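Troubleshooting log. The previous run stalled partway through. Resubmitting the same two chains, unchanged.
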Amino acid sequence: MRTFLIQLRKELREQWRTRKALVVVIVLVAFGLMSPIIAKLTPDLLEALGEGQLGEVQIILPEPSARDAVDQFVNNVTQFGLLLAVLVGFSGIVGERERGQLALVFPHPLPRRTFVLAKFAALAILFGVAVLLGALADYAYTAILFEAQDIGRFTAMVALIYVWLLCLIALTLLASALGRSMTGAGALAFGFVLLLSLLGMFTNLAPGTLTGWGAALAKEIDAPARWGALAVTLAITVLSVAGSALILERQEIE
Amino acid sequence: MDQHAIEIHSLTKRFGDFTALKGFDLTVPRGAIFGFLGPNGAGKTTTLRIMTGLARATAGQITIEGVRVGGQQRPPIGYLPDTPSFYNWMTAPEFLRYIADLHAISEPPIDPLLDRVGLGDVSKRKIGGFSRGMKQRLGLAQALLPQPAVLLMDEPASALDPAGRKEMLDIMSDLRGELTIFFSTHILNDAERICDEVGILHEGELLLQARRDELLARFAQPIFEIDVAPEDAPALEALAAQIGAQPWAERVQHEGARLRVTVNEVETARRALLPMLTDRAVRRVEMVGATLEDVFLRLTNNVATAGERA
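Second attempt completed without errors. Output:
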């Protein structure tokens, strides 16, 4: 536990000093703030764009609501959260191996599984803080522009998005452990993401269905609970982290 | 307690069909500065990677200070890779603090250690701005921080400029008596300068292991060094060929205005050699002892020749 905390502190400091933390937080908070604004302004924008170009044709859009803000938030955070998770995570293991840093630190008493666990924990903390701040910004702005949402349902939505992001982070870490080069690891990470997306087209057990479930909860729409998808997502996350540790344990470091 | 700091038994490493290490044995006395010599590709780095636990042996066993490498317990080692790579966003004291924390050292001697390796005045600079020599010295500091019984170094001075190399060798020399040093190198002058004992590895096989002085004495062969005036240097090529054809000449090395002639019969050589030099602008003729380089070349050439014959 002591070594884990030392390594976790090193990872968190690295995120801060290399500005990775700042980028992730700024992007997700920005989308948290923008989501309700976009939802509010979309009808006006469309109206302004269509004015004078459609002749007698009229576009009738429903009055924007807090539900539109939820849709915007879920879309933005999942799209950019996915991109950030892959970009920030894929170099985690392979990068240090390629640069020769692992050859310097592994002869010291740093178990490889602790190294992997600390990497995952640091990314989980970073994305946890960023999603939380983004969600708070979204919640506050939605309350100002529309109405306050049910806090319990909103929290459940954010939690489901976070679990889905953790799964992506774990898979990206697995790609980083498997990849022989940075390019290979990056390609593999995007491959995993693509595979998850394809899986979502065929089964309701895919991790991607969690975000839809979360959105439905926040919008107070009747939709089936996706407990199976939640279990599958958590299982993939745990197996990916354990797999990364196992792979690194067996690897020979150049 | 055993008098050996390092014991290697039947160390074998295969990469697919290629055998990098062919089951050699080696022992390093406690407190020695041991030079692990060999040309590039001999298997030196592979051996060190196995000793540090970064790679696994296909067969064989390594024990360091009585602790088996790859077992439950960690051997008391410090390791300096050939080109140490750090976290560039850290400063040198931050990196050493991190390493000290991993070793659970509550009050690490960071400042004295940085002073010792000559980095005391750059403690606030990020490592990313360090030169190669500075990184090498910081690498040595991190290896020494846990006060290891055995210091393993992979080509510690090979990539440095002459001044950096001298500094590194001086620091290593200063450590004599404090711990056992095992370092690989292909620069034989470095080994000759500071080693107590050497092992010569060639194509994954240990050709020999001996104390440096014994080795030089055992392989000592009379060598005549002949220096001529620079304007006479072009004519040395013909002279080298002429001497090389003599039955008493084993080997002739030609470097600029100098010939090094290894002979097998001193008196015959002396009598025959001096008349051959009468028309040359000779500045110096001296009989010198063999260097580690002479021993190394002789051994590796013998192996290569035997291989060709086979």
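Takeaways: The first helix of chain A runs from residue 2 to 17. The CA atoms of residues 81 and 159 of chain A lie 14 Å apart.
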